[in-house]
Design goal:
Blueprint lengths: L4 E9 L2 E6 L2 E7 L1 H11 L4 E5 L11 H8 L6 E4 L5 H9 L4 E4 L1 H5 L2 H10 L4 E9 L10 E5 L4 E6 H11 L3 E6 L11 H10 L4 E4 L5 H11 L3 E4 L1 H4 L5 H10 L9
Parallel strand pairs: 1-4, 1-12, 4-5, 5-6, 6-7, 7-10, 10-11, 11-12
Antiparallel strand pairs: 1-2, 2-3, 7-8, 8-9
Helix pairs in contact: 7-8, 8-10
């Protein structure tokens, strides 16, 4: 059995670490470089960095911040936000990231997934999905719709079908974020996570809603997630990564325990 991963998420706006609830009301809470270093030293398995307004503002990602984070950590590092071309992907990888997360850019141009996989390998390409619950329709039979531009623009696309398409195009992993659960600390959307893990064969990262270690354990045990993204509970010091991993391992989930 592969070890499950705990991945702190650094949402960055204007170079500052920020956090919101359901993609709104963000407040700045710190320095992303210092936070990344602290989480690496605390035993995080990976770090995810999102420039959360890059796509909406139609600009490139803050590569200087990516470079400074990459200098401080020695674990896998995934970067997303405003990545629309193969050159954007290359620039992020050259800045020190191991993986590139494509989200809005992939919805607009799905070929970027296959192009990225061909150029850099599927292991480098993460399909980021921001998903909202909606009424079930013929176009969205699962009741889960893909939303882009940082949760601002619904696109009328069924999340489960998009996950399957992303895998077929060459994505090596999916980061699945529930907009409805984001920042609530009420737990991940297990129904959404379970639907996606049942329909693809690549690792799925559960994202949005972590409030305590049991929420992560539930995502692993009940929805077959390969990893869990966390933010508020570590940003605000409610739990350490060590406490989280020890609790999850106590529930029978294999974790990487390195301190």
């Amino acid at each position: 059995m592969l070890s499950k991963r705990i991945i702190p998420c650094l949402d960055v706006r204007a170079g500052k670490l920020t956090k919101g609830v359901k993609f709104v009301d963000n407040i700045d809470i710190g320095d992303p470089v210092e936070s990344a270093k602290a989480y690496f030293e605390a035993g995080a398995d990976e770090i995810v960095f999102y420039d959360i307004t890059a796509s909406h503002e139609q600009r490139g990602i803050f590569l200087d911040v990516v470079e400074r984070v990459a200098e401080q950590i020695f674990i896998p590092f995934s970067v997303g936000g405003g990545i629309n071309t193969l050159d954007d992907m290359r620039a992020v990888l050259l800045a020190g990231a191991e993986k590139v997360s494509v989200n809005s850019g992939a919805v607009k141009n799905p070929d970027i997934i296959s192009e990225g996989a061909a150029a850099f390998g599927s292991q480098c390409v993460v399909l980021g999905m921001d998903v909202k619950r909606v009424e079930k329709t013929a176009d969205i039979p699962s009741g889960f719709e893909v939303v882009i531009h940082g949760g601002r623009k619904p696109v009328g696309m069924d999340a489960i079908e998009w996950a399957k398409t992303g895998e077929a195009l060459g994505a090596g992993e999916i980061c699945l974020n529930s907009i409805d659960a984001d920042g609530t600390k009420d737990g991940y959307d297990l129904e959404l996570t379970r639907l996606v893990t049942k329909n693809v064969h690549i690792p799925v990262i559960a994202s949005g809603g972590a409030g305590n270690p049991d929420h992560m354990a539930d995502a692993f045990l009940e929805a077959n997630a390969s990893a869990a993204l966390i933010a508020s509970i570590v940003h605000y010091g409610e739990y350490s990564i060590k406490q989280i991993k020890e609790h999850i391992q106590g529930r029978g989930v294999k974790m990487r325990m390195v301190w």
